[in-house]
Amino acid sequence: MRTDGKSFRHESLxxxxxxxDLLKSISxxxxxxxLSFSDADGEIVMEPEGLLQFKLTAAKRQGRHRINMRISWQxxxxxxxxEKSLAVRSRR
Length: 92
Known about the structure:
By secondary structure, the protein is an alpha+beta fold. It has one domain (2-75). It has two helices and six strands, in the order E-E-H-E-E-E-E-H. The protein has helices at residues 16-32, 79-83, and strands spanning 2-3, 8-9, 35-39, 42-46, 53-61, 64-72. It has a two-stranded antiparallel ribbon. A two-stranded antiparallel ribbon has the order 3-4. A two-stranded antiparallel sheet has the order 5-6. Strand 5 (53-61) and strand 6 form a beta hairpin. This is Amphi-Trp domain-containing protein. InterPro entries: Amphi-Trp_dom (IPR027598). Pfam families: Amphi-Trp.
């Protein structure tokens, strides 16, 4: 695992039931808009919202099967942009 408050990495061997449980937790976190990833070395919290980009790849090569899923989204971290209002006027 690697964590610096902005990134998190964990790698381990799991059986299919454990992987199903992890995927269910991720799915629930996406539904609720709150994901927390942690292990003994640290934690990262994410709040997905709006449109998310989803990428899925699958491959079978030389007896090794792999599935990769990537979910990403943009976060607008500047609150002043959200608070600004637009005004449009004509000369009348």
